[in-house]
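tl;dr need the bound structure. longer version: we got a ligand (calcium ion) that a collaborator sent over and nobodys looked at where it sits. i said id run it. heres the input, straight from their email, havent touched it
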Amino acid sequence: MSQLRTPASTPRTTDPDWWRNAVVYQVYPRSFADTNGDGLGDVAGITSRVPYLASLGVDAMWLSPFFPSPLADGGYDVADYRSVDPRLGTLDDLDALVRTAHEHDIRVIVDVVPNHTSDEHEWFRAALASAPGSPERARYVFRDGSGPAGDLPPSDWVSNFGGSAWTRVPDGQWYLHLFAPEQPDLDWENPEVREDFERTLRFWSDRGVDGFRVDVAHGLAKDLSTPYRPSDEKALPLDGSDPLYDRDEVHEIFATWRDVLNEYDPPRAAVAEAWAPAPRRALYARPTELGQAFNFDLLEAPFDAAAFRGIIQRNLAMSEQSGASSTWVLSNHDVVRHATRYGLPLGADTDAWLMTDGTAPALDATRGLRRARAATLLVLALPGSSYVYQGEELGLHEAAAIPRDRLQDPKWIRTGHTVKGRDGCRVPIPWTTSGPSFGFGSVAPHLPQPADFGASSVEAEDGDPASTLSLYRTAIAARRRLQQGEALTWIDAVDGSGVGVGGGSRVVAFARHDGWRSVTNFGADPVPLPSGTVIVASGPVEDGMLPGETTVWLD
Ligand code: NOJ
Ligand code: CA
């Protein structure tokens, strides 16, 4: 075995499998805490809030990109992978954050964005300054155009943010970007690209970073010989023959990454953002590759017993098969917050709702939060790791009425102002009940916060046993004590109806280690509470009844 590298700073606990059952808190750095009064969250701000994360009881934090970036896509347009955006701090600040986190036994996961760079990355500048066919262009995907004059894009591929996936440069060639034009795609057949990313993985691992979240992991391998691709997502082949996504060749890249991650003690963890259909998603999570892949099924599911039950069963079966551990995600920086999704009528189109500034259809905010709390408590009882997105522990709703002239998401521009995009969940979180940015910083924040945000601040919720913050704290602490192994046993008749798993019951119940049970009533009406001691409940439980839209843990 080659010599294992010892990191600069290490967490107090040394379990190499820490990630299998971890609660991972996602920090969106620019919207977390601003210490130097420029309206933008910074690395020192995150460090100052590590004690808060410790009080929440999380095992790790995942930092969305903090690298130098012109911010064409919230930092997912990286200009330098081995540095810190000067507006957010310095490498020393990052080292201090990792050290402080480790002192609190919190691991740090860094976001790597390998599918594309920023158009301000030195490689892309060099590509533009060089001739067609040059080695500088060969790190990206440059092609001649189609049509007699070459003035049509090389293929009909569309960008995820709307419009063509090709942009023309002054000398007539076109380059590929699956996202914004400011995010040119790299060519992963080029060995120089592969070597550079291995260097990046080592760079952060050497600094003590504990793991990586891999952006658009399913997009790195492409078949450029196929110009046609159906624009209707439903018509896409899901068997690895799509020219752009989830191709078999991509796995060879991650097998190499695993070798790099295993050079460290403990091996660095990794989780793939891979929008691939369920059985193929498991491939990214194999122990010989990244170890985990995000399971986004709950982001797209309604608050419904059968939907949750099916998703849980499928994902647990899948991770058992691949040797991975499952992941659970209810919210992240790309979707409408789950308290809000669950408060809208079933099937509501959230993009259309945002275009009405959140007025139509009407949001039932109380119900949405009640359901969100129930869903969170259920998910925290599951084997595998739970990802918590900043602010969900405060029960925040989507900020749906951000003035149009303040929107930052490239989707807003690329869709000709027809889709607002994701800024509503990226608004700086409230720490205090009042102040110019509710404690986020000393001046107005880069994205405006709703006027009522203070009521959901850490200050308002801290110490209130009924608050969502208290629910998360209590549940995460109890989970730490209870969560052992990865076994789950379904209980199929808790509501006395005898309706079994997979049946029409509105109750989802399962037992974990040593008789610990989680019971969720997805229905509106109360059901009899099963016997046992209530360890934690997502809402008030009285008179031996489990109210509607409520989860309890029982011992
Ligand atoms: C997925 C990230 O989560 C999202 O925020 C970003 O826009 C795209 N990848 C492109 O990097
Ligand atoms: Ca700042």
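gonna send this back to them w/ a short note. Residues 305-322 form the longest helix (18 residues).
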